[in-house]
Design goal:
The chain is an alpha+beta fold and about 575 residues long. Helix content is about 50%, strand content about 10%.
Length: about 575
Amino acid sequence: MIPRIQKRGQRTIGLLYYLYGPGKFEEHTDPHLVASWDHNAPDPGRDAAATLQQLQQLLDQPVENIDRAQRPKKHVWHLSVRNGAEDRILTDEEWGDIARRMVAAAGIDDPEQDAGCRWAAVRHADDHIHIVATLVREDGYKPDLDHDAARVQAQARALEAELGLRRLNKGDGTAAKRPTSAERHKAERQGRERTAREELRATVRRAVAGATSETEFFDRLAAAGLLIRKRVAPSGDLLGYKVALPDDRNKDNEPVFYPGARLAPDLSLPRVRERWAAGIRGQDTSTNAPVGTAPDSPSAARRRTASAAWTAVMIVEHGDDAVAAAYIAAAGEVLDALSATSAAHTRRELRDAAFAFERASRSHVRAERGHGRALRRAARELVHSGPALGRGEDGATTAMAIDMLFFLITATVHWHAKKGHAQQAAAARQAAEHLRSAYQAAAAHPLGALYQRGRRLGRPLLQRQTSVLREAVPELAEQILAEPGWWALAATLADVEAAGHDPAILLSDAVERRELDTADSVSNVLVWRLRRLADLPADTSGAFEHGTVKRPSAMRPAASRPTSPNRSRGEEATGNTR
């Protein structure tokens, strides 16, 4: 149940004409009263002798009875209460009771004191009602409506439980503004999957991802095809910005602009500037360049994204709250950047993951800027490396990056749940499901190639890798051996050994440093961890398909040594995890 207090108005009759009318898109059916301050109030929907003017005059009578100077400038209060599509259809009696409890919760009416404002609840659809009230009581007093939104939300949670409706999570005031019903109907009429507000929010977030200056940010907005208006002070300083879709027009055929703050709280110019002030250019870059790839290639950027995500999981799990919040916000930038540069077969799920995670990237725990720079740098490199083609090393490293991000987003779910952030936890959980689907699309080909290589391993080599598995992770060995992904892991262990590493040590390291409980296939997860730790090519369908792996010249000998349990947080934060 979603109660939404609309902007206050000045004309009661204008709102009544809308509520009892056909609607903007002929969506209103059988408008009628379900409850009001007076059982004998006229109902123009069901009584042919009643008029809208009669109902309006009765509602406004207390306002007209006080001096004009004492009247509120905007005396019309408007609340809509809507159920979800999956909820049962409520009766008029149930909606009437809901209306009475909502006005009591808001402070519009006080049944116990037999005092309150005049109000009426109109139903013109199966799934919602509108409550209109005038904000002067019959004794001339005006109601105290401080925190009325929070009170009606609390009442909605109670009603959901009593009526057996879908239970929504309690909000905390950090969510982006929802599209209005007019915006939703406009999107439907124009054939848009999302409203203009939602499209703009996603596009602006992708433009922010990894950006380091106002110039770069606005250049990205322009490149995305948005119309931009800047608000400039007389001094020449930039104060804010608005954006619009070129084809989103109002009735006068003018573009409909939205300020950044109206898209999401963290997209206002001051909040975006905080990211730039934190900086990402000073980040340590000592991690090895991926094998066989140019430093600025899409696959190289995806490998570094996987490394940054791998490190970030531990920070979110064990870091201070403000630091963890910074990493979570930066994870949103990575998802935005990855979705903007993804191949066609993963783009939809990645964009849906980024869209869902937007809600999880903000809470009342204020992020301590300056942390999460490795993730922001990864987002920047993803954008600047350009789109991935989804084949070969690009496609395989995309699967690797998504796999690591899945565990980072899962850690975010747990973090928000511990803090009692129900909406954010639910959003992160939804993002993780989209990532799971994107991973399956991205990983199918590279894992299939590894699977075929594993099936062709000679018996002595396969027995040696089985022994390595049982030696390194005896508690997981039988589970892994029973998985179809074991063949891909066996091929990877052979590659690790051929590259000069101790496969048992590297495998132990891959298992011990991160949880595996949420993995659909433990063996597949370990494939990507090992290939990242050992700097092995993610795609083996080419040069690595018919031979053994030679030790890469850029490989550090230390990579085969176990990671010290005493590694400092400073080392973790720079991404030096290999």
